[in-house]
Amino acid sequence: MLYLDKLIAQLAYPLGLSLALCVLALLLLVFGRRRLGGGAVLVAVLWLGAWSLPVVSNALRLSLEGRFANNPVAGLPQADVVVVLGGGVSVGPPHWPYPDLGAAADRVWQGARIARAGKARWVIVTGGTMPWSGERGSVAEATRAFLVELGVPEQAVLLEGRSRSTREDALYSADLIGARGFQRVLLVTSALHMSRALESFRAVGIEAIPAPTDFEVMPEPPSLLRWLPDADALAASTRALREYLGLWMYRWRGWAVPAVGGSQRFS
Fold it and tell me: Sign of the CA dihedral 230, 236, 242, 247?
């Protein structure tokens, strides 16, 4: 199912869908359906071009990130534990001495800030290994090492090193939370991902308090450049579409539970 989910998702993203339409257009042209083939190519170009526009990408991401305020750690409430979702650290092969930090490594910094500010005594870090990754350590282990280097006591960090998805992040973290008797939970992940993460934790009985980080969209003055196709904008649009697709699929499967009344605006 993990492989199937990844394959279906790739076909739904702008680049994958546009390439699929181009293949369809080629087949139509081979069989003499020139008008349909030309239409498929046109749709593929327009679809890919639209999601490549920074103005479109920013609006799409802001529709997710805008649900949460970018507040300092000092304003967060006290909690028993902070859960830091994996995703910002890439684990290399065994002979690599250090993991690589991605854009979402802000999550680890945010977890360290919260712990060092005394907002939570314990930190749970999540993230296992994908079956196609080969012989590598877990993301949770790499995240713990990074937290320790940032000044968080190693004995305060609890590992959840089995999860391979947001659904499993919530399930396996809930096991640790229940076993330890934690009541109040702060949840750290990228602002773009926070809606799906909160609903996933709610589905397993954890009403977490959001502590979002890794905000991508910043206020910018109007510019014609925002209307020109850009590869970074296409990648950013894909990340946002992945979240919407994931959220819809999770809700359909019963793995995500929206907030009462449908409101998710947090300040």
Answer: negative
